[in-house]
Amino acid sequence: MYVIEHALLNLGKNKGRNILLGVITLAIITATVVAMGIFNTTRVVIEDTRAATMSAIRIQPIGRTQMTGSSQQESAITLEMHQYFAESLYITGADISDSGRGIEAVYYLIHPDMLGAFESDLRGRGLPDAYTVRTDDAAFASLVAPIENLQSLSVAFLIIILVMGAVIMVLVTAVSIRERKYEIGVLRAMGMKKKSVALGLWAEIIVITCICFIIGMGIGAALTQPVTDSILAGQSQAAGPTTLADRINNAPQTEAVTVDVSITFTTSLQIFAISIVLASVAGIISITRITKYEPIKILMERT
Amino acid sequence: MKCLELMDVSYRYEGSKDYVLKKISASFEAGKVYAIVGESGAGKSTLLSLLSGLDSCKEGTILYNGKNLQEIDRDEYRSKNVGVIFQNYNLLLNSTAVYNITLSMKISGDMASKEQAYALLKNVGIDRETTDRKILKLSGGEQQRVGIARALAHNPDVIIADEPTGNLDEKTEAEILEIFTHLAQEDGKCVIIVTHSDNVSSVGDVVYRIAGGKISTIG
Hints:
- The complex is a heterodimer of chains A (303) and B (219).
- Chain A is α+β, with helices and mostly antiparallel strands.
- Chain A has ten helices and four strands; from the N terminus they run H-H-E-H-E-E-H-E-H-H-H-H-H-H.
- Chain B has a single domain, classed as P-loop containing nucleotide triphosphate hydrolases (Rossmann fold, 3-Layer(aba) Sandwich), CATH 3.40.50.
- Helices cover 35% and strands 26% of the residues of chain B.
- Chain B has helices at residues 44-51, 74-81, 97-108, 114-123, 128-131, 140-153, 170-185, 198-201; strands at 2-11, 21-29, 33-38, 59-64, 67-68, 82-85, 158-162, 190-194, 206-211, 214-217.
- In chain B, helix 2 (74-81) packs across helix 3 and helix 4 (114-123) packs across helix 6.
- At the A-B interface, helix 1, helix 6 and helix 10 of A face helix 2 and helix 3 of B.
């Protein structure tokens, strides 16, 4: 217990070193919050978009690439057949309409993964081999392209932060602990066991990390949305005003793609775990090196 | 009763061919003050490191109450059985005098009370106001006294001091020597003092001289 008490007291005694370590840890955690926030949110958005667009199914003649509109061949499937197909257990519902120029039918799968099962069901219900069952792949790709770019960017950013952060933290922690070699020598000379000294130093690093985590979560949460908006705006400008619209079935582009980023509880836990692991690894490497010295050698070095 | 015993102890530093200590044998009993004298570089401080468990001998045996120091937990030995007063104090510089004392008590597993620490510091001539000042703000003499108080904090059987009065004035030196004598004669401690001072060595019940890696009794 006194080891932890000693560690907490030391936080205040070694202000300069701890502030430096804290600032670096805070920067790493804040950047991690932004990257993780964007990554996790875009993952959910892509999944939702996939669920929404890939669940919408059309029946098309084989060899036809255009997804929209109708044709004589397509309308060869009668209204009664479409209504019979709509009784499939793999869909949540269907929009079937007869505009006079042909029958328009869209089926909504319970889950995008049920496409194969739905097609087999339709074959069983009499869908001719000349027809295929298709999802709106192009619309999905167009909608998620900027979001996927954002996600890729966040992954790259996260990897850079974690690798660079780990290296920087190991170096800063090593310097910080090395400066305390004398103190460690005195504690060991007083009979404090190696593991107690190590526990105390580790506890100091973890407390600094926890404080930085709380502050970093706040700053990171505040920065994540503006950073996301800025990246998406940059992508829209780079792509040109009509490109996205062109991709989405020639529909006019009405507004830029937006993603509402949120830091969920799970994301917070992931960031906390990353922070603790990173700080612990950095700390343990330095602590292991410094505690291997015999106390007399440390004290003799000083004299 | 033999408290510490050296049996054919030899020591040389890593990378060195020359032995600092060559097959030395000596014994230290409870209730006595021992003075170890010798020229600079003779191996006095090395002997002190071995006796205090800060270093271990590769050749020979050191027994503490009949147990081989190599075979017991030296951290525990340092925290409970021996109190070391260093020539250069070796205190926690960013901490207060009283914290240095209470921490020593806690490391040894004792119940640490500030009042006990204040009393110990008062015994070595540190007033209440000074006890709450950081070590860095104390004079050399005051730091030496704190070092002495810290060595006594966990009530060890053996007190080992390396030039304990080197930074003290004559009056304080006399007071500190009085404390050492009291600790040996009244409390039954084994007090081992490494010194250059004839005045300090004069309080020794036994005086050992180290020269050429050998130890001999001169008084």
